[in-house]
Design goal:
363 residues, mainly alpha, 4 strands, 48% helix, 2% strand
Length: 363
């Protein structure tokens, strides 16, 4: 599914480049530094501890699917890293695809961001996990955020492979549309990509949710499929993620110039240093994708102000003590439209108990 520059629209550069790569790389460097800080602080803290499954029995198929997807993610993630290294050594530069893969790897820190104000999403603690780095994201509000079980092995390939593969599938849909309707305009072609992003995301997440690998805990039921079920699907989330999170980065990759550069890395040809060229291109594209990802995250994080109560059937290995009687804030109910947003210092703070008895700490 890889797309070479020859198969993408050829948009020649005219005149002297204004070097947007410098501006986008500066933004990317800030995001990269933030990711390093957040991850390092988490790894060195007492919050780096597993979230266990709790009292609810976990169906065998949930463990099977979790192990399978972890294996797929690790194998493909290592393959992606090897591809980038081999490409750099062999070609003395990075291909557009290598840059795109590495840039997506700069977005991992945003994975729990939609729980910024209060929890509305959680992975299954059947995944191998050590909690979450969420509380170390600057300004984090949602209490007990470290209890969200980030699937560490699955994350190896989730962004660098799965998201990239989805973007390449969207590019395929855009090329298909171009071949069927040669006169299609740029905006119409982008619209095809955005629609394809929504459709592909709906299909993939339908199966992942049925495998019970994660759950959208709190949703606006009137705008969701299968409301009040542990596999409920908030259509507004899939619409925004499919268009912004996948469709826009796919369009960024599709519309490369005659040198194979994406808009965010225009001007890279003026850099003579091999290492500087590679780093700045990754930071530039990573900065662009991070900005788009952050816009999506903020919109969905704000949607929790209107969510309905959680499904009553949520097992301990999906709610993970993020809220309710088994969370650190024992007097705070799980979020809904009528429940105030608790702040880190809103207390009273009972001793951290967690559903498994091991305890979750919150800073």
């Amino acid at each position: 599914m890889a797309i070479s520059s020859s198969s993408s629209p050829q948009v020649p550069l005219e005149g002297s480049p204004n070097r947007p790569i410098v501006w986008w790389a500066s933004i990317g460097a800030v995001f990269f530094a933030l990711q390093v800080y957040v991850m390092s602080a988490w790894l060195m803290s007492d919050l780096f501890t597993p979230t266990l499954v709790g009292d609810s029995p976990v169906p065998d198929f949930v463990f099977y699917w979790a192990r399978l997807w972890e294996a797929v993610a690790v194998i493909t993630g290592i393959g992606a890293i090897a591809f980038i290294i081999k490409n750099y050594i062999k070609e003395a530069r990075l291909s557009s695809l290598a840059v795109f893969i590495a840039a997506w790897g700069m977005t991992v820190w945003q994975d729990p961001f939609i729980n910024y104000l209060r929890p509305m999403f959680s992975y299954s603690s059947a995944f191998i996990n050590y909690g979450s780095w969420a509380p170390f994201i600057p300004g984090w509000i949602s209490p007990n955020g470290s209890a969200m079980p980030e699937p560490l092995l699955m994350l190896v390939g989730m962004y660098t492979v799965f998201c990239v593969a989805m973007c390449l599938a969207i590019c395929w849909a855009m090329r298909k549309a171009k071949s069927l309707w040669p006169q299609i305009g740029t905006f119409q072609l982008i619209a095809v990509g955005l629609l394809a992003g929504v459709i592909f995301d709906l299909i993939l997440e339908f199966f992942w949710l049925r495998m019970q690998l994660y759950s959208y805990l709190g949703v606006i039921r009137e705008l969701s499929l299968f409301p009040n079920q542990i596999w409920q699907m908030p259509l507004y989330n899939h619409l925004i993620w499919g268009m912004l999170g996948l469709g826009v980065p796919a369009a960024l990759y599709y519309f490369r110039d005659d040198k194979g550069h994406m808009i965010a890395e225009r001007g890279a040809e003026t850099l003579t240093s091999k290492s500087s060229n590679a780093v700045l291109r990754i930071f530039a594209v990573g900065g662009f994708i991070n900005v788009i990802f952050l816009v999506y995250s903020v919109i969905i994080a704000l949607s929790v102000l209107w969510i309905d109560p959680y499904p009553e059937t949520l097992p301990s290995w999906l709610i993970n003590g993020l809220c309710g009687p088994n969370s650190a804030y024992v007097e705070v109910s799980c979020p809904s439209q009528t429940v105030p947003i608790p702040l880190p210092d809103s207390g009273p703070m009972a001793p951290a108990t967690g559903p498994d008895g091991s305890g979750y700490l919150y800073q």
